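Minutes, project check-in

Agenda point 3 was the complex the collaborators sent over. CS summarized: three entities, 924 residues total, and the question is how they sit relative to each other. Sequences were read into the notes so everyone works from the same version.
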Amino acid sequence: MDVRVSSLRKEFDRYPALNDVSLSIRSGELIALLGPSGSGKTTLLRLIAGLEQPTAGNIFFGADDASLKTVQERNIGFVFQHYALFRHMTVAENIAFGLTVRPRGLRPQKAEIRRRVADLLEMVHLSGLEKRYPNQLSGGQRQRVALARAMAIEPKVLLLDEPFGALDAKVRKELRRWLRDFHDRTGHTTVFVTHDQEEALELADRVVVMSQGQIEQVGSSDDVYDRPNSPFVFSFIGDSASLPVTVEGETIRFRGEAIGITPSTGDIDAGTLFFRPQDVVLPPPGEPALEGRLSACRRLAGTRIADLDIGPPGAPHHVEIEIPLATTVRTGASLRFRPTRWKIFPHAA
Amino acid sequence: MAHDPATRRLRPPTTEAPFARYALMAIAFLFLALFLLLPLAAVFIEAFRKGAGEFLAAFGDPDTIAAIRLTLLVAAIAVPLNLVFGVAAAWAIAKFEFKGKAFLTTLIDLPFSVSPVISGLVYVLLFGSGSLLGPWLRSYGIEILFAVPGIVLATVFVTFPFVARELIPLMQEQGNGDEEAALSLGASGWQTFRHVTLPNIKWGLLYGVLLCNARAMGEFGAVSVVSGHIRGLTNTMPLHVEILYNEYNFVAAFAVASLLAALALVTLLVKTLLEFHYGAEIAAGRKH
Amino acid sequence: MNGFSASSPRWRLKTPSVLPGFGLTLGFSLAYLTLIILIPLSGLVWRTASLSAPEFLAILADPRTLNALKISFGTALAAALINVVFGCVVTWVIVRYDFPGRRIVDALVDLPFALPTAVAGISLAALYAPNGWIGHILGLAGIKAAFNPTGIVIALVFIGLPFVVRTVQPVMEELDREVEEAAATLGANRLQTIGRILLPGLAPAILTGFALSFARGVGEYGSVIFIAGNIPYVSEIAPLLIVIRLEEFNYAAATAIATIMLCISFAMLLVINLIQTWSRRRYGHGA
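CS then shared the predicted structure for the full assembly.
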């Protein structure tokens, strides 16, 4: 089932939580909504589910306008951040709930429900725990019960709100791999919300980066990491450094000095230069380059990180770059480098 | 609101449909009106049925004045006693770990689960003519039953848990850290209580005293059993209300009752204000 | 590791603490408790114990006693059931709906805690008597709401309501909205969500509120006697019979009835505790 969101707007007490958002999700895709808190990612998920009503805009499931349907009619599977298991029901009763509340004509036979529950428990590797109550389960087990419960109604779309947020680091890693595997086996269109970029980049087919109620970029992990299309995405995903620069013809200058790189397009005359710490070289003396004073030097796993102060001593820009392990520089000494991959974004108007 | 007919039934999934909402509210308000609001209003309406003159005349009766005086006296003795007990018991229970603590806490709650009539009965059995204690005390000229001491005792019994019950959860929640800090800075035990503990619990204490006082002034069953109903001598306000009512002197009965109802309203008002302003400081004991 | 620190099982009344005043406050509390509560109550137990078994049974077998107990427990049960139903509706409206005067309605629920029972008694009698405002209207419908067991139930509904509301309210306030949303995403309509998710979650609190309201109703005196009519065998409650027996100086009968009532009250307390323990174990939260 493909999902299409068009010009969606949501206001809470006149405050826009989501501002003109459009997005197309292909059938069977695993999509991550990534952004800092307050970026509107959970609001978007809840709008798709039907837990909130949009102020304006539409949501389509295939050709159906889902915005005309209640949450009950949309047939979505939703996994809540804190699982929202029914604590007075056993694991089996929790999973069967969505089937037992169906109208009499559509409700499967008792034996059929039992069989489906057993299948789902097996699928989430929890066979044997059907008689337990939620408070007798570990966090990871609860999370999988919640998933099985959502899958029991054979949803068209699976929606997960911070699915790993409440788990400790080790369980989180395991479940992340397991969820990818689970998705590949069932082939459901799946959307999950996360604020953890590592989780989004590792797990999703495509990542939707959001900020302040708007979509900044949609793309594969490679796209958003290697080809970020906005200063926000560049600085939000991965490590980065930035410097104000000017462009004169074929040269990029920092504080009036050429720094040895040339712009790809010529329509910018001033902007912010972004680059990643690992995308630098230390050029031989004499070639134009950026120059900074080393304020600290740290060993980080297989690399060495240099903290540099660039520019006027009164108000320097701080930049981190990776340097070869063998490099020996004293604190306070000057170090010259040049970005190998970079992007310039014009100053916001 | 009716801009798009297609969105008419799309309400948030955690609320009821409007008609269900209004029906539930109507049921709740009707129920509260019939059982709480009208009885409260009726007290004042009946009291003023024959005008303010008759209402005020009820308070000219010396027996009524005696009843008001006795009620104030009884509350003035019972409330401070239970206040001291409540603070002492809460200090021992909340600040220390000792054997039998849970049992002691249960015992303090005991008067809440005893019928008021039985609370009075136990004192009749203890000091009545058939007991050992009663005749012995009487031989020294000390009257307990059908006299003021009996009324005070019965009142103390029924209002016993109020202050302690309010303070124990509150002080348990606050822990011992503040007191330990004060002691480490050289304060004496009393100084610690006076300058550290008391400011922390003052609103909870006031709350407990308020409820204790309301019950002390309004107690009927227990006091009725031990008082002997001697007009002008052992009649508290609630008992006087009963006598006037049974004499078909309704205006006077409701006039005295309206005074008690006003006290209840003031209690509720102060209680609500305390909860509103110092909710967090008294929340631990908010559940009755 | 030396053998002293871990294994010196000397019996201690209290865990050591730097705070002063333990002896003084506990001593005073115990003395006061003993004087005010324990000695008088043990007097009751002693009196009961001095009754012979046949005497005791004869008092209980007296039809007037039996009827009084039946009326007290029957009306308390009916009132507690009414309070559970309407108390839950009132609590729901207070907790979930926003309307002008919500705080006032919330505060009003505590009225029965604050209003002296005798005042409530005469006021309810005046309202529900055949010539009262409400009694008059009910009379037109052929309903007699005072001076019979119905009147007792009305008084006990008044007295018991806050016990249900104040027990259920904190639990209802902490209901997790996500759980309701989860039920909706699984296709449950509002009625199914309330009936199968919310009410079972509230059940321990509702049961506790019911038990508290019932226990209070059984022992209630002041608010009942004015509206009950106090007709022996018909609308005479057990606490009133105790008072009547006392006025006849029939201490034995008064004691026997009181003992039975106390036993049942304590059984109720035990039931409440069991509900809460069970609920905590099963769902991980109390009532």
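Noted in discussion: The two ends of chain B are 43 Å apart (CA to CA).
Follow-up: revisit at the next meeting once the mutant set is ready.
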